[in-house]
Specification:
This protein is 10% helix and 47% strand. The chain has one helix at residues 2-18; strands spanning 23-30, 35-36, 41-46, 53-62, 70-78, 84-92, 109-120, 126-133, 146-147, 150-159.
Length: 163
């Protein structure tokens, strides 16, 4: 009986994964608890092609320990031939009443945050994406070293609807 339940769960999870036809790359990494600003999540992505446009996302899971309504991230993309693009991004994480945005039925919320729309991997080879937090409290110059409430950081590449 137990083996049939495990087998059923395996086929169900395979079905869910295979239904994601737009996903080209989707990976998560757990971050330290609390997430230290020096703890950089690194993702290595092979360029799918050099012609088509893709949408890029930062995925993030947070729990009830996250006490801010926004999130600042530094996302750095290193191209295969040495070019580097570094962005400081701000994302809204909660409604004005404090309710977290994102999806999920438990205390963990999953957020799919836009990074780049219509991005073309112009160089063949491996791209490296580095993600770290850059949080500060209002009125303070020095940043937050340890950010509580973030459990996992991910990176996702999707085909655009035009592909």
């Amino acid at each position: 009986m137990r083996s049939s339940v495990i087998l059923m769960l395996f086929f169900l999870s395979a079905l869910v994964v295979s239904c994601d036809a737009n996903g080209v790359f989707d990976e998560y990494q757990s971050v330290s608890n609390p997430w230290n600003k020096e703890d950089i999540a690194q993702f290595k992505v092979q360029a799918p092609d050099t012609i088509s446009a893709y949408n890029l996302f930062v995925n993030l899971r947070n729990n009830q320990e996250y006490k801010y309504n926004n999130l600042f991230l530094i996302v750095e993309m290193n191209f295969p031939h040495g070019k580097t693009v570094k962005d400081t991004l701000e994302y809204k994480m909660a409604k004005p009443n404090g309710e977290f945005l994102g999806t999920g039925f438990s205390s963990i919320k999953e957020n799919k945050l836009w990074y780049k729309e219509g991005f073309v991997f112009s160089e063949t080879g491996e791209y490296q994406v580095n993600i770290q937090h850059a949080m500060r409290e209002n009125g303070k110059v020095k940043g937050i070293v340890n950010l509580e409430g973030v459990t996992d950081v991910g990176f996702r590449v999707e085909k655009t609807s035009k592909n």
